[in-house]
Structures are given as structure tokens and as C-alpha cells.
Amino acid sequence: MLTIEGPIASSAELLTHVVSRIESGEWMAGDRLPSVRRLAEQLGLAPNTVAKAYRELEAAGWVHTAGRRGTLVASREAGDVEGQALALARAYAREMRGLGLTPEAMVSYLNRALVQAE
């Protein structure tokens, strides 16, 4: 089972953390994520926060639920960039909206981040 450590305070941060581990190759297809309850306790989050992140990860194709086997990292198909990008954009928008920012301000911050990442 995979472990998740570090300061994670929201479902969007958890989603981003999991995606980055999968993209880096640290977590591979078939690896099992912790249960919602276990991860919520480990990170000090509400179970609903973890469940929300897992639902978004599944909707974007990053993970899949395998019944009693838990939540597993899904095999990635090269053509699913759109679904991945949309899931990350939704998480970003929700978090920024939670800060009270307007859509224009969100785009401005994203543009600044892109310039700084170059």
C-alpha cells in the first residue's frame, strides 16, 4: 500500500499530490492507495475530503475502485490528457474560489505561475 506524507489540507492538494506521484513513475498501475478512512486519519482530514479527491481522481482516470481490493492506480493511456487536465483545472478553480477570487484573478495567478515555471 502506498503512503502519503506531508502537509495536505484539501482535496485539491491531495489530488495534485497523487497525480504528481503517478506522473513521476513513483506510483505504478496496480499500486493500492490507502483506504479513505485510513488516509483521512493519517493526514488529519475529514473522510469526505479524501473521498472527494478519490472520486475526482477516478473520474479523470488516474485511479479505479476495485471493490474489496480498494482504490488502485489505473493504467494510463496516452490519449487521456484532456481528462487529466480538466480534473486538475476543476480542483484549482474550486480552491481559488474558496479563497474568494474572481475568475479573472484565477487566470491572472495561473499566468503568473506559468511565467515563473519557465
From TrEMBL:
Gene3D superfamilies: Winged helix-like DNA-binding domain superfamily/Winged helix DNA-binding domain (1.10.10.10). This is GntR family transcriptional regulator. Keywords: DNA-binding, Transcription, Transcription regulation. It comes from Ammonicoccus fulvus. It comes from the Bacteria. CDD domains: WHTH_GntR. InterPro entries: Tscrpt_reg_HTH_GntR (IPR000524), WH-like_DNA-bd_sf (IPR036388), WH_DNA-bd_sf (IPR036390). SMART domains: HTH_GNTR. PROSITE patterns: HTH_GNTR. Residues 8-76 form the HTH gntR-type domain. SUPFAM superfamilies: Winged helix' DNA-binding domain.
